[in-house]
Specification:
Strand content: 35-45%
Number of helices: 7
Largest sheet: 8 strands, antiparallel
Shape: elongated
Distance between the termini: 179 Å
């Protein structure tokens, strides 16, 4: 039923035909919205993906470089990836020390950590962490100290180790006691004590190293390697030492046979301990004879002869001998018994003054001039004398007193004088110009016997001077003064 509208007419809805323009507008609007919404969504998705990748990369890098700075007490000892690495190493060190010393180890420092980030090349290896902990570690262990005159010179883990060292020091000197000796006492000259002490771990000594230190007085024996042209004298000069000290430090080396590459010790070993042994020794020893002199007026002062040959005697002794490291420092004779008396030697000496022509045993330079040729090889031949160049006529003097045994011409020597000095020596003076003495004549030292010339095989005015000992040529330069 229709409702009235107050005007008396009925209300009626008239359908309108849809506007085409509005419909087209709606379509265009929907397409624009759809187009821009898709781009925004795509950009948003891309941003989300990039952010995710960055976050993932950061997280991976953050996790990969995560590390911890390790501190032992206040000391930094390295960087690790995991705290357990350092804690396990410290635990291993404690266990190892406890097993080694059979005690509980309590460290006065502990480990703590600080967060950090580090690349792989900054991460410390387990060995480095272990070494660094040990180098910073301080704790006391029970050990034994060796005191010499109240000065601590070394430490060992056990008392037996220290006693073994002391016995090893004594052994060579006790083994040196022979069957003719009775050992009365053996000890150390110094005040030596072994005391139990709590000491730092790093002060404990290796048994063999401590023994060497006591024996030599140093922890290290310095050496010098011999190079070309070096001798003990030059090495001693380099290190401001005496040759005697070098020889004492190198008793196993023959100083005359030093070889390139040999190692020469530069320190004379001196033990920190002195092993004193006191022994009673029975031994036999020869006794010297006395030399008595008898004078003879018929003999020259330079002459002597043995009239009665001396013979050593022999005695048996009982003595108390005190040695320090094997060297005798005191010897007390307790008993002496003569087994055989010595026979005195009797020597006869002359008192008569020597004649002027007697040999003195020393040669003077026979003439004045310059040395033109020495003793030795010359032009492929042996030159057996000393050539002294001088002007013709320069005086030639007898080098020593003696008897003229030859004068005259003799082959290449030319004019020659030969003197026998009566003591095994003969001298020759060659190429003389004139000769002033005769065969059989006795001459005195410094007497003019000839003059310098150029006779025989000679290339100029000079004296050819020879010295013979028991018939063999000698170098005159070793005899003339």
């Amino acid at each position: 039923m229709d409702k009235p509208n107050g005007t008396g007419f009925k209300t009626q809805i008239i359908p309108l035909k849809e506007n085409k323009f509005i419909e087209k507008f709606k379509i265009i609007k929907d397409k624009i919205i759809e187009k821009y919404s898709f781009k925004r969504i795509l950009v948003g998705i891309m941003l989300i993906v990039i952010a995710g990748l960055l976050l993932t990369t950061y997280k991976i890098n953050e996790i990969k470089t995560r590390a911890f700075v390790v501190y032992f007490g206040d000391d930094e000892i390295g960087i690790v990836r995991e705290q357990d690495e350092a804690l396990n190493i410290l635990s291993d060190i404690k266990t190892q020390l406890s097993n080694t010393y059979d005690i509980d180890v309590v460290l006065n420092k502990d480990i703590h950590f600080e967060d950090t980030h580090a690349k792989d090349d900054l991460i410390a290896s387990p060995a480095e962490i272990k070494s660094n902990i040990k180098s910073k570690m301080t704790f006391l262990v029970s050990g034994y100290a060796l005191l010499v005159d109240n000065k601590e010179i070394g430490y060992t883990k056990t008392k037996k180790d220290m006693e073994d060292i002391l016995e090893t020091l004594k052994k060579p000197y006790l083994d040196g006691i022979d069957e003719n000796s009775t050992l009365e006492k053996s000890n150390f000259s110094e005040d030596v004590k072994i005391e139990k002490k709590d000491i730092p771990l790093n002060k404990l000594n290796d048994k063999e190293e401590l023994l060497q230190y006591i024996q030599t007085g140093t922890e290290e024996i310095k050496t010098h390697v011999v190079e070309v042209g070096e001798s003990l004298w030059t090495i001693a000069k380099i290190y401001d030492m005496s040759v005697d000290d070098l020889i004492a430090a190198n008793s196993d080396i023959d100083p005359e046979k030093l070889q390139i590459g040999d190692e020469v010790k530069l320190l004379v070993p001196k033990s920190l301990l002195t092993v004193e042994t006191i022994e009673e020794v029975q031994y036999k020893e020869s006794t010297d004879y006395e030399v008595k002199v008898e004078h003879d007026d018929n003999m020259y002062k330079t002459q002597k002869k043995v009239k009665v040959k001396g013979v050593e005697g022999e005695s048996e002794y009982v003595a108390k001998i005190t040695r320090h490291n094997g060297d005798i420092v005191e010897k007390e004779i307790l008993k002496e018994e003569i087994i055989k008396e010595p026979v005195d030697e009797l020597v006869v000496k002359g008192t008569k003054e020597l004649p002027k022509t007697a040999a003195t045993g020393a040669f003077l330079m026979p003439t004045r001039g310059s040395i033109s040729s020495r003793y030795g090889m010359r032009n492929g031949r042996m030159h057996r004398g000393l050539d002294i160049a001088a002007r013709t006529g320069t005086p030639i003097k007898a080098a020593d007193g003696g008897k003229v045994v030859f004068t005259g011409r003799k082959g290449a020597y030319g004019n020659l004088v030969e003197i026998d000095h009566g003591n095994g020596y003969v001298t020759r003076y060659a190429h003389c110009n004139t000769i002033n003495v005769k065969r059989g004549e006795r001459v005195y030292k410094g007497q003019v016997i000839a003059s310098v010339g150029n006779t025989g095989r000679s290339t100029g005015s000079h004296l050819h001077f020879e010295v013979l000992k028991n018939g063999n040529n000698q170098n005159p330069a070793n005899y003339v003064r």
